[in-house]
Design goal:
This protein is α/β, with parallel strands linked by helices and 120 residues long. The protein has 3 helices and 5 strands; from the N terminus they run H-E-E-E-H-E-H-E. Helix 2 crosses helix 3.
Length: 120
């Protein structure tokens, strides 16, 4: 498993724990898994409250943000739940440009993360 995949899956776990206060049920699909389905798709996180899907979340890394991935995002905006993207802070502009080019900037939310390591 590549280090990028390990980080992707770690971030999914982190988000599940952090969002568990806001959602009564969170289903996850790690990289390459198709365990939890939502309307024919397998998003990284499926956010539910009392059985209703409130949103779906995709975790992206620097190397996964591309026009091909944006086409996948567009399909996911039609599934019936709000799409939330978690993007590296340094790639926020690129992701927003891709959302605009796909015509889905108003149908997807963007959250960002930034990994900082401070050494003495």
């Amino acid at each position: 498993m590549k280090s990028e995949n390990i980080f992707h899956d770690w971030l999914i776990d982190y988000l599940r724990k952090r969002l568990s206060k806001d959602y009564s049920e969170i289903s996850i699909n790690y990289d390459g898994e198709e365990t939890n389905e939502f309307n024919g798709s397998y998003p990284d996180l499926i956010l539910k409250n009392h059985g209703l899907v409130m949103g779906i979340m995709e975790v992206e890394t620097t190397n996964t943000i591309s026009p091909e991935k944006a086409a996948e995002w567009k399909k996911k905006t039609t599934l019936g739940a709000r799409l939330i993207l978690m993007i590296p802070e340094s790639e926020r502009k690129k992701a927003m440009d891709l959302l605009w080019s796909q015509g889905i900037a108003d149908k997807a939310g963007i959250g960002s993360y930034d990994l900082k390591i401070k050494m003495p």
